[in-house]
Amino acid sequence: MVEETEKKNENEKRSKRKLGGSAIGAILVLIIALVVTFYYTQNGKRCPCFQDSRKYTGIVEDCCCDYETVDSINGAVLHPLLQELVATPFFRYFKVKLWCDCPFWPDDGMCKLRDCSVCECSENEFPELFRKPQLGLPADDLKCQEGKPEAAVDRTLDSKVFRGWIEVDNPWTNDDETDNGEMTYVNLLLNPERYTGYSGPSARRIWDAIYSENCPKYASGEICQEKKVLYKLISGLHSSISIHIAADYLLDETKNLWGPYPELMYDRVLQYPDRVRNLYFTFLFVLRAVTKAKDYLEQAEYNTGNPEEDLKAQSLMRQLLYDSKLQAACPVPFDEAKLWKGQSGPELKQQIQKQFRNISAIMDCVGCEKCRLWGKLQVLGLGTALKILFSVDGQYSHDKHLQLQRNEVIALVNLLNRLLESVRLVQEVSPTFEKTMEGLSPQRAAKSIHSLIRLWKTVVGERLRQLPL
Ligand SMILES: Cc1cc2nc3c(=O)[nH]c(=O)nc-3n(C[C@H](O)[C@H](O)[C@H](O)COP(=O)(O)OP(=O)(O)OC[C@H]3O[C@@H](n4cnc5c(N)ncnc54)[C@H](O)[C@@H]3O)c2cc1C
């Protein structure tokens, strides 16, 4: 009887141990499953949901062309053509009023002094042509641009001033384009858009004024297409500016070492899918304007007094406008016809035009000369695209009525090139970041494994100790 009871107790103990063993097994399986799930969800390449949220595929929102097509036509057609086109004499000289008369906050310390906003590093550096009295250049002073020489514009010219284009004011922009009094010519190739050191409250104030007063970010349910378009154009331009800053950054001031700074690109643009999407949108919008003004741009005279180079500009422009691959892949990059519909259309157009003119006026408040140069050029480029696509009262609805200034065409084409370069940089840098993140994931996973083990030791280990082994 005693033997039987002992056997029974022994069997009970065994089955308890068995139960304990299978519970441990189940917990271990659970932990492994948790670790594997955690690792795979951290690893972008392996998790389908993660991949979807990072990759840009399908139709660019509100456009008629998809991301893949944009990337492929850029590489195959547009990039090589535009790179050559913007280097021709016609497209490399831009007329601009550089000194600021900020109409909004005259007390801004960054640009109070007229001399500071237009000064150059050394008077002797500039050719005779550049010191012509009508250009109105003041004596140069090294103290300008908050002491940052990289922010100053190099105004060296190596060609004649252009002639023969009609001067008409653009209703979308603030500057009176016909007033040549305070305008000067700048060689864009000598003044690349890149890091200048302009930041802090002054730069922040500009972007704040642009977004908060003139094109606030629309709510997710916003149905007014036109308001969305204005915000997306500015946000896309902002992304492009940030990308160019990161692409050509002063990495080491003491060694004057310049180069790409991909982390900055990631911090400012790539980590925000909306900003990337808005960049693609702005690019397609401007591309549509260029293709819509095809007849005008084809007939325009790209005359600088250098027959060989001018012929080249004309030929490159034709290639751009009539490229069969581009026409087949993306015939209408953006459909402007769907805007300004309904009764409130004309009123809305006036309102948006006023807002854009304000944005254009804000460019005079940019407290860094080179940033102001590129800000003004690109805003004029956008204003030109808006003028081509949406005239004030419909008079530009047919190409034959369109009148563009030479400077508008220069701004439009240079803007297209800037946006295209940004899109290409996004295309190139994005996968590297995906890889970097992929590389980091195992570390994160390892960290999480360690924390899981710790958890396992404290919580699960405690239970194991309680099991009757
Ligand atoms: C017209 C203009 C031209 C400039 N050109 C240059 C230049 O050539 N070189 C140079 O070094 N600096 C330039 N700057 C300064 C530069 O744009 C930044 O302001 C500066 O580098 C400081 O950057 P930040 O990180 O504070 O953010 P900022 O770029 O100043 O952005 C301010 C805020 O705007 C929002 N934001 C940022 N990007 C977007 C976007 N794409 N869409 C929507 N919202 C966004 C964010 O909330 C962000 O905090 C320019 C500024 C202006 C206004």
From TrEMBL:
Binding of FAD, residues: R194, T196, W207, S235, H238, R268
Annotated catalytic residues: C368, C371
Cellular compartment(s): Endoplasmic reticulum membrane
InterPro entries: Ero1, ERO1-like_sf
GO terms under cellular component: endoplasmic reticulum membrane
Organism superkingdom: Eukaryota
Chief place where the protein resides: endoplasmic reticulum
A single BP term in Gene Ontology: protein folding in endoplasmic reticulum
Keywords linked to the UniProt accession: Disulfide bond, Electron transport, Endoplasmic reticulum, FAD, Flavoprotein, Glycoprotein, Membrane, Oxidoreductase, Redox-active center, Signal, Transmembrane, Transmembrane helix, Transport
Keyword RNA-binding: no
Annotated transmembrane regions: 21-40
Subunit structure: May function both as a monomer and a homodimer.
Record's protein name: Endoplasmic reticulum oxidoreductase-1
Biological source species: Petunia hybrida (Petunia)
